[in-house]
Specification:
Strand order of the largest sheet: 13-15-14-16-17
Number of strands: 17
Largest sheet: 5 strands, mixed
Helix content: 40-55%
Number of domains: 4
Shape: elongated
Radius of gyration: 29 Å
Distance between the termini: 41 Å
Length: 600
């Protein structure tokens, strides 16, 4: 596992390094120099020159005007383009075209083109209009030259080399774009394996353990078969949901993280936790078991089908947990419509996530704890883990005080499980003393959380901070003490209005009530003294995409965002600073550097 992690970190570093040296990009009028000349009454000559590292797209060239015919475009250099997610023909260094025209009356010729920098920046389309008089050959001067400064649709969105905050998502996209099925499958298998040790997947281990243990005397073969059925159910659901969401172009993360969905799934996880405390026996309803058994013709087959269904349901329960590789895969599918490749990637990732489950099944005859005191302790630990995940899942949609109360009660429950109130027996070992110390810490922490909740606290990590009146550092800016204040916008028009009238850098924050990382950014990053001080000189605007309505989708599509959190930074002229874009949670130190990059 250590070597796999090191290998992944190396890949992430390799993905990030180009961005570190790609801070300086030419403006479009210098990156793509266009000269136009009317050679005769029937021919307009167009000549582009591009410096090293810049290219034009063949299919992004267009020409319009009365009597304007389409020119014969030369073949370009074919390459898979990461910005558009498909193979495209490109022109490097120079491009010469002869544009046929007809008619004798003056007219306006409009030329549109788009290009990108090899370092990762994709420019919006450039539109140039010339006034042409067929009776007066010579050099043509641009009537209107508009290098679009606002980001357009997804296929024409400015896209910088990925910053450090979005390595796993962009790495996942680049892996998909490589085109190699084996490479894609292998990489996403590793992604899934790493994700299997996160709170999104780990709670499935005790669920599967209870099913296998409930079988009685299970052989390794039988345990592996049950685990395989359970894992296959999870994998197929992840694949189906991912491909379906990608083809529909919808944010599955947003749909699965609506408040009522989170509360429902959190309740299900809590119900599963109760089975770990022997409140009830975890199994399929008897009526469903009977139907499955009858349809299969034998009990063993019916049991496997039942376990398959439980695996599928488990995947739905942990669906609100969204990770970078999954987001990257879904974004790729939605942009390219390549459901086969995206589906294969998601299936491979789900298979990697299932490795601990398969090992659990394979170890049915030896590693799973047997009935007795040890087994009961293990089950209770798993039950506590499920409760913690349930609280973590529903926390973003609850009032802060309610979340503090739940975490306080959970900490006290952990202290009770560790028997904190009982005296240690004579001759107790080091482990018993360590457990006792942990129990005392959990008990005190739980009491602090309850006191904080009862006194209207607002920070789970610092439950009593609001009781320290007048503790602000002398000379500290007011914003650093109170946190930044955002103005809300709702539509693309609102954003354009702000950018057009601004005289200082602008920070656009994409937020949602169900977004855990958004809350972490507010609590851990925005409130940090250095960050808040740096944000004082910026105009702060925020869009709440909790409802995920048409306006929300239009704003996210404009910046190719799959969902929150996402922070877009603009300079004082209202132009985005692509290299400073922040996707996902970012700690204060790194975020301050992004703000400084915008200011410079």
């Amino acid at each position: 596992m250590k070597y796999v992690f090191n290998w992944l970190c190396t890949l992430l570093l390799a993905a990030w390094l180009p961005a570190a040296f790609a801070d300086d990009f030419l403006p479009p009028e210098q990156a793509f120099v266009l000269k136009a000349e009317l050679r005769d009454a029937h021919t307009v000559s167009l000549h582009w020159t591009m410096p090293d590292g810049y290219h034009l797209y063949r299919e992004r060239l267009s020409f319009s005007g009365p009597g304007v015919a389409q020119p014969q475009l030369p073949a370009g250099q074919r390459k898979f383009d990461e910005n558009f997610g498909k193979e495209m023909e490109t022109y490097y260094a120079a491009l010469d075209l002869n544009l046929p025209v007809s008619g004798t009356a003056p007219f306006d010729l409009t030329v549109s083109y788009q290009g990108c920098a090899d370092a990762g920046l994709c420019y919006p389309p450039v539109v140039v209009t010339y006034s042409v008089n067929p009776a007066a050959p010579g050099v043509l001067n641009a009537k209107v030259a508009d290098a679009a400064t606002s980001v357009g649709p997804a296929t024409a969105t400015a896209k910088a080399a990925p910053p450090a905050a979005e390595d796993d998502t962009s790495l996942a996209q680049r892996t998909l774009q490589s085109g190699s099925a084996w490479r894609i499958g292998g990489a996403f298998l590793v992604f899934g394996l790493l994700l299997s040790f996160t709170p999104c997947v780990l709670p499935m281990v005790p669920i599967l353990s209870s099913i296998i243990v409930g079988e009685g005397n299970v052989t390794r073969k039988r345990g592996l078969l049950l685990a395989g059925a359970y894992s296959l159910g999870m994998a197929l659901v992840y694949t189906a949901l991912g491909v379906g969401a990608g083809l529909a172009g919808e944010g599955l993360a947003g749909a699965l993280q609506k408040p009522w969905v989170l509360l429902t799934f959190g309740t299900l996880l809590f119900a599963l936790a109760l089975s770990m405390f022997d409140v009830y026996q975890l199994q399929l309803p008897s009526a469903l078991q009977s139907r499955l058994t009858a349809s299969s013709g034998r009990q063993s087959g019916g049991k496997i089908i039942g376990v398959f269904i439980m695996g599928a349901l488990s995947a739905l329960i942990v669906g609100p947990c969204v990770a970078g590789p999954l987001a990257g895969a879904l974004l790729y599918i939605s942009q390219t419509g390549n459901a086969a490749t995206g589906g294969w990637a998601l299936f491979s990732m789900a298979t990697g996530m299932s490795v601990p489950l398969l090992l659990t099944g394979l170890s049915a005859g030896s590693l799973l704890p047997r009935a007795g005191a040890w087994m009961n302790s293990v089950k209770k630990v798993f039950g506590l883990l499920l409760i913690a995940v349930a609280i973590w899942m529903i926390g973003p949609v609850l009032p802060v005080t309610a979340g503090m109360a739940l975490w306080g009660a959970f900490a006290i429950l952990c202290a009770a499980f560790l028997r904190t109130g009982e005296a240690l027996p004579h001759g107790a070992g080091l482990g018993a003393y360590a457990a006792k110390a942990l129990g005392v810490v959990m008990l005190l922490g739980g009491l602090f959380e309850l006191v904080g909740a009862a006194s209207s606290g607002n920070d789970v990590l610092q439950p009593l901070a609001h009781l320290r009146g007048g503790s602000a550092v002398a000379g500290e800016p007011t914003a650093a003490r109170e946190g930044p204040r955002f103005s809300r916008i709702r539509t693309v028009a609102d954003l354009d209005k702000v950018l057009a009238s601004t005289s200082k850098p602008v920070m656009l924050d994409f937020y949602a009530d169900w977004c855990v990382a958004c809350k972490e950014m507010e609590r851990m990053t925005f409130s940090e003294r250095r960050v808040a001080a740096a944000m004082q000189d910026m105009q702060l605007i925020q869009v709440d995409v909790t409802a995920n309505n048409a306006d929300d989708k239009a704003l996210m599509k404009r910046f190719q965002l799959f969902g929150p959190p996402g922070i877009i930074l603009f300079d004082a002229r209202g132009k985005e600073v692509p290299q400073a874009r922040v996707i996902g949670f970012m700690p204060p130190e790194s975020f301050v550097r992004q703000l400084q990059r915008t200011a410079s």
